């Protein structure tokens, strides 16, 4: 059984999350200060080079200065483009990203893993698998427009579908659902932050797919009751 945690709006009992056999987290997985809501365990951490560097840059002062650590944590790297291969090269050569598309990130990739970098626990998701998930599960109408080159599923979507291929049962917390506009974008937001629908993602499609998977009993999707209101 797996539980997926992402950084959208969520507040709930940590016991529900930590009681799962495996806990998947991704991107800006801020735990410190939110243990009662999001739990403390991490079994798999999913990311792209861009999502990880952005999370450290934006949330470093909030406690997310490196990936979740632990001898049993596995790291799932989604290879979505050039930046990810540049990240891999710099990481294995222990170099900076100064001459790459991530030149603004002033750290060596290995620093994001501290002493946890172990090639046996660093798993690469094949680009063909990512294309399969995009074309079979999340084939957006954007692919038929002039913006087709920039469309990609969110990192959370890739992680959820990966877990669905690996685990017998999946519970998903923090994913976009009906009524999302009543809540701030992230659970760790200190002030109201509206979720923006950028053209490179199809949040409406993902919302519909997660609801359908839930309704058909394929996953269990945490959904706020209609009467719930944001505390932000």
From TrEMBL:
InterPro entries: Glyco_trans_29, GT29-like_sf. Its EC number is 2.4.3.3. GO terms for biological process: oligosaccharide biosynthetic process. Keywords: Disulfide bond, Glycoprotein, Glycosyltransferase, Golgi apparatus, Membrane, Signal-anchor, Transferase, Transmembrane, Transmembrane helix. GO terms for molecular function: alpha-N-acetylgalactosaminide alpha-2,6-sialyltransferase activity. One of its GO terms (cellular component) is Golgi membrane. It is a single-pass type II membrane protein. It comes from the Eukaryota. It catalyses: a 3-O-[N-acetyl-alpha-D-galactosaminyl]-L-threonyl-[protein] + CMP-N-acetyl-beta-neuraminate = a 3-O-[N-acetyl-alpha-neuraminosyl-(2->6)-N-acetyl-alpha-D-galactosaminyl]-L-threonyl-[protein] + CMP + H(+); a 3-O-[N-acetyl-alpha-neuraminyl-(2->3)-beta-D-galactosyl-(1->3)-N-acetyl-alpha-D-galactosaminyl]-L-threonyl-[protein] + CMP-N-acetyl-beta-neuraminate = a 3-O-{alpha-Neu5Ac-(2->3)-beta-D-Gal-(1->3)-[alpha-Neu5Ac-(2->6)]-alpha-D-GalNAc}-L-threonyl-[protein] + CMP + H(+); a beta-D-galactosyl-(1->3)-N-acetyl-alpha-D-galactosaminyl derivative + CMP-N-acetyl-beta-neuraminate = a beta-D-galactosyl-(1->3)-[N-acetyl-alpha-neuraminyl-(2->6)]-N-acetyl-alpha-D-galactosaminyl derivative + CMP + H(+). It is found in: Golgi apparatus membrane. Pathway: Protein modification; protein glycosylation. Signal peptide: none annotated. PANTHER family: ALPHA-N-ACETYLGALACTOSAMINIDE ALPHA-2,6-SIALYLTRANSFERASE 1, ALPHA-N-ACETYLGALACTOSAMINIDE ALPHA-2,6-SIALYLTRANSFERASE 2-LIKE-RELATED. This is alpha-N-acetylgalactosaminide alpha-2,6-sialyltransferase. The gene is St6galnac1.
């Amino acid at each position: 059984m797996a539980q997926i945690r992402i950084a959208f709006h969520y507040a709930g009992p940590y016991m529900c999350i930590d009681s799962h056999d495996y806990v998947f987290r991704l991107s800006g997985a801020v735990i410190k200060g939110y243990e009662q809501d999001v739990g403390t365990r991490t079994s798999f951490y999913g990311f792209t080079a861009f999502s990880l560097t952005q999370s450290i840059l934006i949330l470093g002062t909030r406690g997310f200065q490196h990936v979740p650590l632990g001898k049993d944590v596995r790291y799932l790297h989604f290879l979505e483009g050039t930046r990810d291969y540049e990240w891999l090269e710099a990481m294995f050569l222990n170099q900076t990203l100064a001459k790459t598309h991530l030149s603004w990130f002033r750290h060596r990739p290995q620093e994001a893993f501290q002493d946890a970098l172990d090639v046996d626990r660093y798993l690469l998701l094949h680009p063909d698998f990512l294309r399969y998930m995009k074309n079979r599960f999340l084939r957006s109408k954007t692919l038929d427009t002039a913006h087709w080159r920039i469309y990609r599923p969110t990192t959370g979507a890739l992680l959820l579908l990966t877990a669905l291929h690996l685990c017998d049962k999946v519970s998903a917390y923090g994913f976009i659902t009906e009524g999302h506009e009543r809540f701030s974008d992230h659970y760790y937001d200190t002030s109201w932050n509206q979720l923006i629908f950028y053209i490179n993602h199809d949040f409406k499609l993902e919302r519909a797919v997660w609801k359908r998977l839930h309704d058909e009993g394929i996953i269990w999707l945490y959904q706020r009751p209609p009467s719930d209101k944001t505390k932000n």
